[in-house]
Amino acid sequence: MNRFYTLATAISISFSVGFFVHSYFSPSENQKPELKPQENIKLGAFSVSLSVKNLEESKEFYEALGFEVFGGAIESNYFIMKNENALIGLFQGMFEGNILTFNPGWDENAQETPDFDDIRKIQEKLKNQEIEIINQADEASSGPASFMLKDPDGNMILFDQHR
Predict the structure, then answer these.
(1) Are the C-beta atoms of residues 75 and 47 closer than 8 Å to each other?
(2) Domains of the chain in sequence order
(3) What is the DSSP string of 57-84?
């Protein structure tokens, strides 16, 4: 019975110390930027841009999964592959790592959408949320532009407006 009380006391003390340490050393709520839900931002077509080692081999692999070449060429070192509304970009020697890509103003068929959020508006909304923007789009410009950011896990996200 004495062992039980010793064990219960040890667990209780450990929990209390852990709670104190966590409370004391964790940033307070006003030190963390709070990400607030945004109204629906129209991001446009979504695709995954893959950095590949062998463009032809990757193309054949994705063709086996039912994708077809939608754009690009072997001479340009990239292909855009499409399967229904799923898009994958295969890029050889253009960048490191993989990138999530949004194309405001385009649908998954690279057709212009009548109603979209301009890239500078999207950038401003994200900056207001204290999200760090990499390679910012010129806010004084109009038309085609792009910017990038990283998600909390370091994944690159490209916002690329073509119109």
Answers:
(1) no
(2) 1-32 (no CATH), 45-161 (3.10.180.10)
(3) HHHHHHHHTT-EEEEEEGGGTEEEEEET
3-state DSSP assignment of residue 121? helix
Residues 54-82 have pLDDT tens digits of 999 999 999 999 999 999 999 999 999 99
Rg (CA), the chain: 24
| pTM, 2 dp | 0.72
Q: How far is CA 138 from CA 20, 112, 144, 158, 159, in A?
A: 47, 22, 10, 15, 13
Strand residues in the chain grouped as ranges (E): 45-52, 68-73, 78-83, 86-92, 99-103, 145-150, 156-161
* Pair of tokens at residue 79: 């292909």
**Around Cβ 161, how many Cβ atoms within 10 Å?**
22
